[in-house]
Amino acid sequence: MTLLTSLRNLGLAIGASLAVSWHAAAAEHVVRMLNANDSGSMLFEPAFVRAEVGDTVRFEPTNSGHYVRSLALPASARPFSSPEDEPFTLKLDHEGLYFYMCPPHLMMGMVGLIQAGAPVNRQAVAESMLATKGRMMSNSQRVDVLLQQVK
């Protein structure tokens, strides 16, 4: 085996190892869609998730009548909407904030926020979140609580 072949094989091995370790390091976060818990009614638990780019968030409809839809996202991220009453997994491929809601329960303040890496789109998402407060008949303070958790 020549030195060039050995170096090429070493490079391939290192690349494969890095790909495997990056994939292994990705985390899965679970968000439950609930009718009620000790904190209130019609909510995501947890409502705020701090994650890294490459992680996934799995939404689980613990009670019926829930689904998740994006409201504001990082610039290159694709909007999402899950089927009602079915688990949904979102891969966080872009850095920034992901603001979402349960459409049937938005008026009751059923909103959530994911921070993947740095909040590069903070201003745009904050504006969307504050505008959404006007569509909530109750629990609009949840928007403020979510925004306070962004770092």
From TrEMBL:
Q: Where does it reside?
A: Periplasm
Q: InterPro entries from the entry? A: Amicyanin/Pseudoazurin (IPR002386), BlueCu_1 (IPR000923), Cupredoxin (IPR008972)
Name any cofactors this protein relies on.
Answer: Cu cation
Q: Which GO terms describe its molecular function?
A: copper ion binding; electron transfer activity
* Superkingdom per UniProt: Bacteria
- Signal peptide positions are 1-26
Q: How is the cofactor bound?
A: Binds 1 copper ion per subunit.
For this record, the Gene Ontology CC terms, alphabetical, are: periplasmic space
Q: Which residues form the Blue (type 1) copper domain?
A: 32-115
Q: Does the keyword Signal apply?
A: yes
- Positions bound to Cu cation: H66, C102, H105, M110
Keywords assigned by UniProt?
A: Copper, Electron transport, Metal-binding, Periplasm, Signal, Transport
Q: What is this protein called?
A: Pseudoazurin
Q: Which organism is it from?
A: Rhodoferax fermentans
